[in-house]
Amino acid sequence: QLTQGFENFFRHLRGHGKLTEDNIRESLREVRRILLEADVNFKVVKQFIQNVQEKALGQEVLRSITPGQLVIKIIHDELVALLGEGVSRLDLSSLPPVPVMVVGLQGSGKTTFIAKLGLHLRRKGKFPLLVAGDVYRPAAIDQLQQLGRQLDLPVWAPGVQDPVDICRDGMAEARRTGRDVVLLDTAGRLHIDEPMMQELARIREALKPPEILYVADGMAGQDAVRAAQEFQQRLDFSGIVLTKLDGDAKGGAALSIRAVTGKPIRFIGTGEKTDALEEFHPDRMANRILG
Amino acid sequence: LSSHPRIDEDLYAELEEALLTADVGVQTAEDILQALRDKVRRASAMSDDNAANVRALLGEVIAEMMAPAARENGLNLSARPAVILVVGVNGSGKTTTIAKLARKFQQDGRRVLLAAGDTFRAAASEQLSMWGDRLGLPVISQGAGADPAAVAFDALQAAKARGVDLLIIDTAGRLHNKANLMQELSKIGRVLKKLDADAPHEVLLVLDANTGQNMVQQARVFQDISGVTGLVVAKLDGTAKGGAVISVCHELNLPVRFIGLGEKMDDLDEFDPEAFARVLLG
Ligand SMILES: Nc1nc2c(ncn2[C@@H]2O[C@H](COP(=O)(O)OP(=O)(O)OP(=O)(O)O)[C@@H](O)[C@H]2O)c(=O)[nH]1
Ligand SMILES: Nc1nc2c(ncn2[C@@H]2O[C@H](COP(=O)(O)OP(=O)(O)OP(=O)(O)O)[C@@H](O)[C@H]2O)c(=O)[nH]1
Ligand SMILES: [Mg+2]
Ligand SMILES: [Mg+2]
Fold it and tell me: Nearest CA to CA, how far is B212 from chain A (Å)?
């Protein structure tokens, strides 16, 4: 129903003759509603509408004979600009083995993403090692080991209790066996769980990973920003991964997290299988959010 | 919130923001504020309408929307064995919720059996089996790739044979827009009915409190296809308020039975609409 709303709205706007300032403000109220219903964060929507309004209330629009078309273009372009400039790649240029740390809230899709990323990197000629750093969730290590077996990728699970030791040990194992990328799985945790957030800080301190990927659920709502900000403050992560975009959630959290952290969206998860990983395209995401 | 001495449009704007940032959704927020205005109008007729009371009235509106008629009755667990099917999208907290439910019912004195109905995801049955070990409860499971309906059938047969009070069946996470996966779920229901026409007696949808507006569509489809009878809202120990659940309760007449407040087996509470409203309004 959301898609219909946007399509109807844009069709109406496109067919409109000259626009008055009131027409424009009314249109932007509708855009605000659409973005909120798409799960874009309240404050991000406010800022976005302000930015669009400044441009949309300009003389160019008010004088145009197809102002609706112009307003739509402003909205679309503003959204794409906010989502990031095109495909962003992982930085794996440092001396191997390069650690990549994967973090996020519970159940966001980290372990599955690590398997997917391992497969993706191997297809690009890398030799990934997966490290099972989640010692808390029942059968989490088992889960990564099974995924490793399915993909014929090595999984390091040294059977010790401290995730910091496990990650350090994983790096040593990578050196021993000539693996050039080390994907570190960590337990899901709340951004307000102090000891668990400190554990991540300790892993980061020990390994200094050039890539820390924050994995967020594509159907997340308003609070997505709060968790992302807290993870960013603690870890200054380098990139974002959005999962479960094979669902029918609009994915406004993508815009929110990106707008608030300024970090690039590196990948999106589009399915449960290990090949369901895609690079992020801002224009496609804009179209999805706008319906 | 509500530091206004007067009830004016600024106050309503502030309340709207609080609701929207709690994932209440634009339409539901409008409905809530309209219901609030009605309550305030009635209260002012009794000159009881100061701003401090508005907050209490708002809490009432929310609590009322979350207490659908369906909630009047408790869980339907009188059958022996009673069967609870647990469903929901990927990663919402189903398997962990089952461990918590098993713990609760075990403490209530019931004999519980678990079924590892997720035969798809890596180490899903191992995860449930570990919980079974911690709880001292048996878990029916088959090899990876087994037909989940077959596991459910075997489990109900075993439950009857062993005279347990309660069978809780885990299922694989699935996105509601995947028709084939939703069909798999309705097949599980049909297969259970071969052994007991009333099974599953409860179908609990586990919702992740972090979810935005998509929650409503999730619930709608799961309800249509698998006959959801109740909700569990997991991960309310985080900072997400789960406001979209209000729309789910209100539009689909589904009761929230429990909330998940953590990752341990005791981290489950009975749902209290007033407490939920209080936390939501901060
Ligand atoms: N449909 C779909 N499911 C996904 C995707 N990514 C992950 N999943 C599923 O989401 C669920 C959670 O995935 P996990 O990889 O276990 O998530 P996690 O973040 O490691 O969870 P914790 O370690 O408990 O925090 C599983 O059922 C996965 O199969 C995706 O892109 N699409
Ligand atoms: N903080 C918190 N974490 C929870 C809660 N419930 C579940 N979790 C965590 O969320 C993650 C996913 O939980 P699962 O029980 O595996 O979820 P699931 O729905 O069975 O996942 P799939 O079977 O993969 O679809 C795990 O890390 C759990 O520990 C809760 O109430 N609070
Ligand atoms: Mg994991
Ligand atoms: Mg599960």
Answer: 4
